[in-house]
Structure to design on (887 residues):
């Protein structure tokens, strides 16, 4: 028996909606198997992982909190990927955005008024854009592969942050811990409602997602993104420049990653430290794909991926499993999403015998 | 069963009620076909008639949904190309599958069993190619070979398997008339050896010339089986199209006006190692004229199109002029604003994005030139109602048959999509129209409609430049003909003064001392 993929005459509408759902179900099943081999009751474990967090207000608050950066970056990446620009380095742009945005509260701690926060957010966005400009420049000028360059730049940015908070930006009163001074209250992004931890980043994320959806759906720019992503040659025929699109896609996704970085540092952490992200920038890649590279889809998938973070933490406590479980789930999810997407374009056929191809005797 | 057996007696390959379904769509619907030993059998049909699907089933690329294939009277199932080759079927595809960076022998080795030494393959290939009059050096690199020579590799590759049946898919579409003659000689040799040939084509005169019998397909069904020599081109065309094909009305006495499109000493270096550089090209198209550029594929047609359309602007601003304005350095959008229309050769992924709807594909070409009509406001919103209305207008004007109101471009047949793509430009009455291969892979009905539209446009006072490999088409539409070969363009000749033979020589690169070109270069 062999498995054949047969190209569908037309993309399947059913699977373009069902594929992410199917991927979620398969991830759950594979997760159950994993828990079984870890010696946990799979049903109980899945309940702790996927159901319990949805029933608890504190967890819901946390999910929204963590969904903020995921959605912001997921939206940017969705558009970049749509245009065929594979920015894998959102984590690095996030980090540089956080660093640049933090300059103000760290270097000028006495400058405190209402302009601080907007300036920080703008600087953070610019930081992310500037960092994404490096792979954009290399790709548009030298045809370098942006997957490699943007990914490698992630590690540079993280080590640079490490160097900063252990060196010149270390808090003088911080007992030698590698952290910067705490941000002044005027430099902290406030919660949306008192009593909750979810802050304005989540609101930005929703607004950005809706705006991006509008752009893709109704404007010529969105059309340009789609055309150049589908076929560079057709884009050239339309008079669109793929070189300019590289810049647009990289700066947009980089800028949103930078905004996510500074928002997260300002709203959730309150100072700079060596680790400011549990891999949000990489998880955002999954967000983009699970959301079908649709900005509105990214809202939903951002919430799902945020759930894996929150339940990973909960599972450590209640199940006694490693927090690596979160990464395993995210990895499986990406794997299944990409595999299930095959079903949109292809149908699977099982061919039972290749032996029957022999000349059959006259019947 | 007994009735079947008698009918298949003596047939090398017979096909009975062969059907291939793609979803609910029957690409091949209960096809009956019979090929006798030692005959050249034509498979005729428009594009989308099911010829390729049928052949793919015979060659084991696709599995039939139902029906039976008989080989020498025995029912067989052919599940892979390897299986087909072992059975005794060889195939020469329309689009070659050759690696340009490898030698001829290496390319041939790829399709044979591993373990045969390259020297032996080279040796055999050389002998074989000599015997069949297909001169070929096994050690030359494919990149250096002409299209005709590349086709010979494919033929030799198929012959090395010693097949009883060779399938050729539109083999002459890439050849000069002289090269085609050579191919016909080879085919006759094969036939004399008792091999059979299944010859797929939509060129009627060719089929009449070399084929013993013909099977005609339309919409996936057999609509006729005949001896092509007993038929007229018109009767064959009727079987293919299912109605009369309108013959194109030519331009006879249109007064020509001012020069609208001009290339002056246009030279462009090759962009990629496999591209052709353009060398000092001069051409002029006046209002009311159709200049056709003939030539064998891969002689710089694509590069010339890129330079004239503005997809790849050129260094020298004066080298290209539209309505007397130098536009060499301007891009395609700026040239469109000067009311130039552009139709590229490749429909999928160049002239149209297959995944997008027809109306989106209208925006693709006209968002800049018809900005007021289709785009609104500082956000550049696409006015979808206006675009849809225009797309409908174009579909109606060009008789584009489609499923649904605004289907994805990829769901249309080649001919219908091409009608839309040409109609998209005609709809704005371009003063200059640049078309590359206007009816490449398009069915006869759509082709005649498109050609007529080009002629009507020129008659209305526009300048039309047609790049084409199809000589029939060129003689049908052109008022002037020039030939491109290795990136050089011959002088233009009035269409009435050129014979097939002369054009063939020019296509082969035999530029003669020009008397006409002196006059052409004179003007500037």
């Amino acid at each position: 028996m062999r498995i054949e993929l047969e190209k569908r005459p037309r993309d399947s509408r059913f699977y373009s909606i069902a594929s992410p759902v199917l991927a979620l179900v398969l991830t759950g099943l594979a997760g159950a198997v994993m828990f079984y081999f870890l010696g946990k009751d799979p049903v109980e474990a899945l309940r702790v992982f996927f159901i319990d967090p949805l029933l608890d207000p504190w967890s819901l608050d946390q999910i929204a909190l963590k969904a903020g950066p995921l959605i912001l970056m997921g939206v940017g990446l969705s558009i970049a990927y749509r245009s065929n620009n594979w920015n894998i380095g959102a984590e690095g742009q996030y980090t540089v955005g956080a660093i640049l945005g933090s300059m103000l509260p760290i270097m000028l701690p006495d400058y405190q008024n209402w302009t601080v926060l907007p300036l920080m957010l703008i600087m953070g966005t610019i930081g992310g854009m500037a960092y994404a400009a490096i792979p954009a420049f290399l790709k548009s000028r030298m045809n370098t592969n942006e997957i490699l360059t943007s990914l490698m730049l992630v590690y540079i940015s993280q080590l640079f942050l490490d160097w900063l908070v252990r060196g010149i930006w270390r808090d003088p009163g911080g007992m030698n811990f590698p952290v910067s001074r705490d941000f002044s209250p005027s430099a902290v992004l406030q919660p949306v409602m008192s009593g909750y931890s979810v802050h304005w980043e989540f609101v930005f994320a929703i607004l950005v997602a809706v705006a991006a959806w509008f752009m893709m759906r109704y404007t010529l720019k969105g059309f340009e993104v789609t055309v150049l992503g589908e076929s560079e040659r057709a884009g050239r025929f339309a008079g669109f420049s793929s070189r300019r699109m590289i810049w647009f896609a990289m700066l947009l996704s980089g800028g949103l990653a930078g905004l996510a970085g500074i928002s997260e540092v300002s709203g959730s952490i309150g100072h700079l430290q060596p680790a400011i992200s549990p891999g949000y920038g990489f998880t955002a890649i999954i967000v983009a794909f699970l959301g079908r590279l649709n900005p509105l889809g990214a809202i939903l998938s951002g919430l799902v991926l945020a759930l894996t973070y929150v339940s990973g933490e909960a599972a450590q406590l209640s199940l006694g499993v490693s927090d690596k479980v979160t990464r395993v789930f995210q990895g499986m999810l990406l794997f299944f999403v990409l595999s299930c997407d095959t079903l949109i374009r292809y149908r699977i056929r099982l061919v039972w015998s290749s032996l029957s191809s022999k000349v059959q005797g006259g019947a | 069963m007994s009735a079947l057996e008698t009918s298949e007696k003596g047939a090398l390959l017979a096909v009975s009620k062969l059907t291939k379904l793609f979803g609910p769509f029957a690409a091949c619907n209960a096809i009956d076909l019979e090929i006798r030993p030692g005959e050249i059998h034509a498979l005729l049909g428009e594009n989308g008639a099911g010829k390729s699907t049928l052949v793919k089933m015979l060659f084991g690329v696709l599995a039939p949904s139902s029906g039976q294939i008989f080989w020498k009277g025995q029912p067989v199932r052919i599940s892979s190309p390897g299986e087909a080759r072992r059975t005794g079927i060889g195939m020469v595809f329309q689009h070659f599958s050759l690696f340009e960076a490898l030698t001829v022998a290496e390319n041939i080795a790829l399709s044979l069993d591993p373990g045969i030494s390259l020297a032996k393959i080279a040796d055999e290939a050389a002998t074989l190619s000599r015997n069949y009059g297909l001169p070929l050096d096994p050690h030359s690199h494919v990149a250096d070979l002409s299209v005709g020579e590349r086709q010979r590799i494919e033929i030799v590759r198929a012959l090395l398997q010693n097949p009883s049946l060779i399938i050729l898919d539109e083999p002459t579409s890439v050849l000069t008339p002289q090269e085609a003659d050579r191919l016909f000689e080879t085919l006759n040799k094969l036939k004399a050896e008792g091999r059979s040939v299944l010859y797929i084509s939509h060129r009627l005169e060719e089929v009449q010339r070399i084929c013993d019998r013909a099977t005609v397909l339309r919409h996936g069904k057999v609509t006729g089986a005949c001896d092509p020599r007993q038929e007229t081109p018109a009767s064959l065309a009727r079987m293919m199209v299912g109605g009369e094909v309108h013959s194109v009305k030519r331009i006879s006495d249109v007064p020509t006006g001012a020069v609208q499109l001009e290339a002056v000493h246009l030279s462009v270096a090759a962009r990629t190692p496999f591209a052709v550089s353009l060398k000092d090209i001069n051409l002029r198209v006046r209002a009311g004229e159709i200049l056709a550029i003939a030539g064998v594929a891969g002689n710089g047609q694509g590069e010339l199109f890129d330079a004239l359309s503005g997809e790849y602007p050129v260094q020298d601003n004066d080298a290209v002029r539209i309505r007397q304005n130098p536009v060499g350095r301007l891009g395609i959008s700026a040239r469109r604003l000067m009311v130039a229309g552009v139709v590229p050769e490749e429909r999928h992924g160049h002239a149209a994005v297959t995944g997008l709807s027809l109306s989106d594909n209208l925006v693709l070409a006209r968002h800049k030139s018809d900005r007021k009509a289709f785009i609104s406001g500082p956000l550049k919103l696409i006015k979808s109602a206006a675009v849809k209305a225009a797309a409908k207008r174009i579909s109606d004007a060009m008789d584009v048959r489609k499923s649904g109101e605004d289907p994805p471009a990829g769901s249309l047949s080649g001919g219908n999509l091409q009608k839309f793509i040409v109609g998209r430009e005609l709809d704005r009455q371009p003063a200059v129209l640049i078309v590359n291969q206007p009816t490449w892979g398009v069915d006869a009905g759509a082709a005649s409609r498109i050609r007529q539209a080009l002629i009507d446009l020129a008659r209305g006072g526009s300048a039309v430049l047609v790049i084409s490999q199809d000589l029939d088409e060129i003689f049908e539409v052109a008022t002037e003909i020039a030939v491109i070969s290795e990136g050089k363009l011959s002088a233009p000749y009035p269409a009435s003064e050129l014979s097939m033979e002369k054009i063939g020589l020019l296509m082969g690169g035999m530029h003669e001392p020009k008397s006409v070109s002196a006059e052409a270069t004179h003007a500037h």
